[in-house]
Amino acid sequence: MSSNPTGGPTDATRGAAPSSTHYVAALDETPLVGVDTVKVAEKRSNLWIDAWQDVRGRPMFWISAALILVVALVALFPGLFTQTPPNNNCILGNSNGGPADGHPLGFTKQGCDIYSRIVHGTSTSLSVGFIVIVLTTTLGILFGSFAGFYGGWVDAVLSRVGDIFFSIPYILAAVVIMSVLSQYRSVWSISLAIGVFAWPSTARVLRSEILRVKNADFVMASTALGLSRFKILLKHVLPNSIAPVIVITTISLAAAIVAEASLSFLGVGLGSNIMSWGNDINQAQNDLRTAPQTLILPSIALSVTVFAFISLGEVVRDALDPKARALR
Amino acid sequence: MSEPLSTSAAVKPLLEIKNLQVGFQTQNGLVPAVNGIDITLMPGQTLAIVGESGSGKSTTAHAIINLLPGSGRITGGEVLFEGRDLTQLNEKQLEEVRGRMIGFVPQDPMSNLNPVWSIGFQVEEAIRANGIATGKEVKQHAIRVLKEAGLADADKRLRQFPHQFSGGMRQRVLIGMGLSSRPKLLIADEPTSALDVTVQRVILDHLATLTREIGTAVLFITHDLGLAAERAEQLVVMYKGKVVESGPSREILENPMHPYTQRLVAAAPSLASRRIQSSNKNLSDLGYSAPRAAEGLDLVEAAEARAAQQASTPVAGGPAIKVDALTKIYKIRGAKRDARDFKAVDDVSFTVERGTTMALVGESGSGKSTVAKLLLRLEDASSGTVAIGGTDTAALRGRALLDLRRKMQPVFQDPYGSLDPLRNIGNTIAEPLQVHRVGDRASRRARVDELLDQVALPSALATRYPNELSGGQRQRVAIARALALKPDIVILDEAVSALDVLVQAQILRLLADLQAELGLTYLFITHDLAVVRVIADHVCVMQRGKIVESSTVDKVFDNPQQDYTKELLNAIPGANLKLGV
Known about the structure:
Largest sheet of chain A: none
Shape of chain B: globular
Radius of gyration of chain B: 26 Å
Number of helices of chain B: 21
Helix content of chain A: 55-70%
Number of helices of chain A: 13
Oligomer: heterodimer
């Protein structure tokens, strides 16, 4: 910028700078740069781009993503992974038998192929997980965003409704509902039973996020532009509040899979005609001492799936939370 | 520590910082924040470190008593306190020094007192920790500390909690705690930047009296050159982690040598308003030229150019804004059915002529921002009228309200909150055009480029997101968005208050240029009377919801009528500095 100050640097002696004299640093050691010059960085950056940059470099993200991909493939195309029918052609003579040719994991008590049953049970678990999160996220976003954004009596009513549902543990509620609905045990009914009581936590997280965002100046600026309240919610407030919901959704997907398995294990879940890991674990419990593999193997499938979703949630949370990023 | 002085004539420095280097550990390795600085402070002296945010001034202060945050560490140099190198001390030894020998007053009085403990508890804790008193004496001592800090009814106040104290009172408590052990050195890190100007003045006066009585040396960190020069004998100007200039305050202000210091002197509103004032001339007759280093940043020059411009453009076509008896009453929820009425805006009337700037000045809680919200129809008035271009706005609905919004746009204070972080700059600036269905996609894009150019930002930024921008650049984007619909009126609600002085000067200049170019009418809301001197034609001073004085800027500065206005004027730092232009 400018080369020489008007007065011209005087007898500045570097390093001495005794406090009583007037010290001026040499200009070449403290060059001036323009005020507030714009540097257009090479890469764009916002919350999502930065988060993607962050997760991309983490092995845990790729491990959990790969696991989820495999689980999803198994669920969608079980035929790709096994040709052995899981239900038919079960030979009682193979009951609780060890691995055999073409049956790498052995047999269940009924003499069915364990590997095939695990493969075919995957879609049940994932379906329940996805239906539940669609339900909880939809309800959570509706209740949370309206309560947080509109406040006042809307908030009072919606939040109290949420509190009522929140006060009942969703697993207990699901046990009760499924016992009552014993005639209609299906993937849909069990998902409904879990989801209907699991949404308030999503709503609460979103509500507090919305309360934070809605007072930002950019919301006021949009109001002053003449944008309607509802459009402001959709265009500005919700997109800036949704990050924690995504984290909570990934983790509640895992929780829903566990809940289905728990209900099936307790015998109030899916009907025995539907193949699911929970049902298989339930049926294997009597033979735990003689044939532990019949219980342990579907449990491992369950654990790996749940682990994949939970670690994905953890990774995404770290990436979306700038504070957590600063600490690392 | 009491070594006999070898030569009786030479007073040993209390604090000697030699070639101090501090770095912060980040993902990209060690980033230096302080780059080899030397500072010498004599006993009983007051020294101010001045610099912008990021200059390393606070880091230096924190490094002295090793209060650096987790990722920061001292990478070289010495901090000699009475000859002892503080950087070599272990944690235990440092605790002996902190509080007892070196007191510390933090920046934010709101977060530096623990809200769950009473004031008395916290003061007593500090007294015990510093071993000043024990047993029953502690309480007596705490009362004395608070009395010294200027809280008259200290014995009653002991049992109160931080939320029952105002910001100024909390800062008094913190100052009291910092001085409770009669330290030889007090480090005050922007002690009053969160407070109103009149409170700032009182607190700093008090701090000066106290430290003079005790004989404590003060290391004062501030971003305000005027404040620093007024409060300290010695000045150290920091820039990008280095000392660019140091010496006696008066000398530096009157004869700044380093181009950076020249810029700071030129851009500080407090100094600029003093310079204009002490010249005893009309702005249009100043005939002033800025030093070359400060080109485009000199506020006196900007004010002069603006005055000339305003004089040459005739005012035409009636008032742009006419506010009459505007009142806003809030209901305050109290204990059971004890709802009180609170008049945030009380019978406010003023008129703003087309193409001029009206400044609305007041301290926090004066109702100035509420006036802005009422004008913008973000809230509805309890009574009174607002006429924009002759139309009463209260009854406007739907289409008509949308048309009003087109004529009048706001820019808000917080540069980090004023832009949606998830929308790129181009979309943010184009949003007003979309909402009002102006033009098609291509013409909107052209308009965005034009607007970016007007606020001196490259058009490449259109596809970028706000978090790449500095505070000043964000405010430019906010200004561009406000101008998108070609409004007649822009309401600037503390729009430059959160910016560093140089950036602030740049934005003030930009605003003046835009006004001249587009014939805009500004309502400029601020707490800083000094800024008003260089940007506004008229000023209304607000206090507790009422306008106490309203006149042209020249008249208010030359001949203030109300005590409150005089108080505000006196609170502009540098009152006793005589500065020619």
